[in-house]
Structure formats: C-alpha cells, structure tokens
Amino acid sequence: MKRRKILQTLSVIVLLPIASLKNFSRGFANPVTPENLKPLNKPPKTWRKYLSPEAYQVLFEQQTEDANSSELNQEHREGTYICAACYLPLFQSIYKYESGSGWPSFFQSIPSHVSTQLDDSIGIIRTEYHCIRCGGHQGHVFKDGPPPTGERWCNNGLSLKFILKTEPLPLLRS
Ligand SMILES: [Zn+2]
Predict the structure, then answer these.
(1) How remote is the CA of residue 47 from the centroid of ligand 1, in Å?
(2) Is there a catalytic annotation at residue 86?
(3) Amino acid 139: pLDDT
(4) Between residues 164 and 6, the one the model is more confident about
(5) What's the confidence (pLDDT) of residue 137?
(6) Fewer beta carbons within 10 angstroms: which end of the chain, N or C?
(7) How do beta strands 137-142 and 96-97 pair?
(8) What is the pLDDT of residues 126-174, one digit of tens each?
(9) Is this model's pTM higher than 0.85 or not?
(10) Ligand 1 center to residue 120 CA distance, Å?
(11) HEC states along the chain?
(12) Exposure pattern of 24-53 as b/e (b: 16+ CB <10 Å)?
C-alpha cells in the first residue's frame, strides 16, 4: 500500500510537467503552419454540429446577418477574431475600426488566412472572402477603408468568435 502511494506521488510529479506542456501547446502554440492553412475541403454539413442555425446560414449558405445585430460591433478589447467554424485566426483587434456600416470592420485580414473571389449575386460585382481553411463565408472587402490599406473588410459577426488576448486560442477544429 505504501509503495503504491509512493508510485502515485511519483507519477504525479513526473506527469505534471507533461500535462502543463500539453496545455501550453494547446493554448498558446496552436501553430498555424502552411500545412493547416490548406483548404480542408470538407462538406459544409461537417460544420453544422458546431454552429447555431443562424451562423451556419451565414457561413455556408451565403446569408448576411442584419446590420447592427452583432455584439462584436461594440468589441474594443485586445484579442483575436477567429473563424466561428474552424477557429482559424482571421483578424487581430488592432485591424478593427469603426466603419459605421453596422458590421464588424477591419482594414486588413491576417495575410493568407482568407481567400477572395468575385461575387455578382446582387447585380454588382463585389469581392467576397472566405476562411481559407473551412471555406466559410465571412464577408466582403471594399476599397473605401481607412489607411494604411484603404480596405474595408466587412465581416458578419456570426462568422467570427472573439478571443481575448489574455486567453489561449482554442485548437483548430477539423
Ligand atoms: Zn474557418
């Protein structure tokens, strides 16, 4: 019995640093490597289990949320905006600005984390962008933004999740 207790204690001492290291890598490293920037090419329904019906409609059925409906319009803290479906970081809070459009707006996205394509669905040609990894629709980018880029990345709040700077980024979803 005594021996078992010693072994248990030893295993705690040995395993604790491993557990801490694992938590550290889960939270903070979460490496975004070229490998996990590749499109996952999964069917949209793969993501349905993670999302509210409204978020799913925006991300994978090309819907647009109502203007001024997102709490992220009022989000001014430091942190990272990640894709609501696959958790890939898409914007940093330092890129956010008040566009007055009613949707969370940024003057740039994290380079290479989104893909763009032309969208003529409402009769005018706009540039639509998607999360590079899961393909989820985020919003449209316009040329009427502020310096230094002159771009306005107009994003649906439902397509994003905000992570405070003081909190670890979640693991990417697959
Ligand atoms: Zn995504």
Answers:
(1) 9
(2) no
(3) 97
(4) 164
(5) 98
(6) N
(7) unpaired
(8) 999 999 999 999 999 999 999 999 999 999 999 999 999 999 999 999 8
(9) no
(10) 23
(11) CHHHHHHHHHHHHHHHHHHHHHHHHHHHHCCCCCHHHCCCCCCHHHHHHHCCHHHHHHHHCCCCCCCCCCHHHHCCCCEEEEECCCCCEEEEHHHEECCCCCCCEECCCCCCCEEEEEECCCCCCEEEEEECCCCCEEEEEECCCCCCCCCEEEECHHHEEEEECCCCCCCCCC
(12) eeeeeebebeeeeeeebeeeeeebeeebee
Give the Å distance between the CA of 158 and the centre of ligand 1: 12
> Who has greater pLDDT, 12 or 53?
53
Mean pLDDT of 54-65: 96
Centre of ligand 1 from the C-alpha of residue 124, in Å: 26
